[in-house]
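Dear Dr. H.,

I hope your travels went smoothly. While you were away I took the liberty of generating a structure for the chain from your last submission, since the lab meeting agenda had it listed for discussion. I wanted you to have the full record in hand beforehand rather than looking at slides cold. The sequence, exactly as received, is reproduced here:
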Amino acid sequence: MNRKSAFLKNRTVLRKHTDVFFRHLVSFVALFSVLALGAILLFVFAQGSMPFFKSTYSGIRLVVQNIDEININGIVYVNQKTFIDIPKNTELISIRFSLADEEKTLDIKIDNNEKDPQKKLTFTHNDEVKIAYPEGYVFTVSWKAVIAALEKRIHIILPEPPYNAGKFLSGLEWRPDRDKVFGILPMIAGTLLASFGAILLGVPIALLCALFMAEFLKPKFAAIIRAGIELLAGIPSVVYGFFGLMVIVPFVRSAFNVPSGNTLLSAVIVLALMILPTIIMIAETSLRAVPISVREASLSLGASKMQTAWQVVLPHANSGVIAGVILGISRAVGETMAVILVAGNSPHLTFNPLSSVRTLTSTIAMEMGYASGRHSEMLFSIGVTLFSIILILNSLILWFRRRMDQE
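The corresponding predicted structure, in token form, is as follows:
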């Protein structure tokens, strides 16, 4: 008896220590996850807000090309492959280097009070040079050579001032390379139009399918259809996009006699197909979770099965249904690959369903690979805008659900 009591006591102590260990382990994992998520959000928000509060650089930067040795303001640089930083508020940049046993000079006078980048610099040189303005805030000075690839070049990169947030959100043009114009209103409109169109098309179909599976279909057949819908929910978005590119885009082009089927309408149809499985699964699970006693009470009062499904079961499951709609909206707003393939990606403001559009996520995916400087920061700003849109939409839906519960 004493041995058995000692065994039970030891097992109780071991179980207690095991519970304490796993409690601390779960707490650590949860804390680490929250901190990691917070760090990611903080990084994205910091990068996204940076273009509106600070300049890209503190001063002018130079990049030399095909020049082995160069003298800039009395400092000699040999085989310089990185940026040469010029101190802030410098008024004159004096450049000297040798070319074919002849000293080339270039003096750049800087007007620090001038806001227009094209008028900010004044060039003085002792030989024929070519001064180009290939993109906003960048000048290129080049000396001719027999082969263009061997030309001596100096690139002058001006610091870009903080960008106006209102101009960013309400601007109609997106030209990140030439003029450094970053207006995302067409992309916001394209994102909202494609998402709301997909919701208006997909949600009613999804609710009808879920209601039919939960209330009218036999359990065996419902289980088969449920397995198929779960399979559709696991298909990668690029597959939906490829299907849309090969089937929906040609259909839209031939049905509406337009030059290109890569339109807003094609994006709406593809997104509606993508969100259907998610909403159906969640809504059908919520409908089946309604107690059988609720159905029996409705039927005993003389209501038909259809009336019970629409007026009793569906209102009881509205919490789960709305959760499915929220997930569907989040997926529609955040979808990237499928929209890139079918929407046409034209950054112009339009409300015509037969015109091409570009979404916020498409802009990030297509340009992040080669973006740098202010352009890269603006793509983070687009990510912050996208996060804010999803947060606002979800908050409005939750507020609407609370209003329905109060009524």
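Two observations you may find useful: Residues 61-159 form one domain. The CA atoms of residues 168 and 183 lie 5 Å apart.

With kind regards,
E. W.
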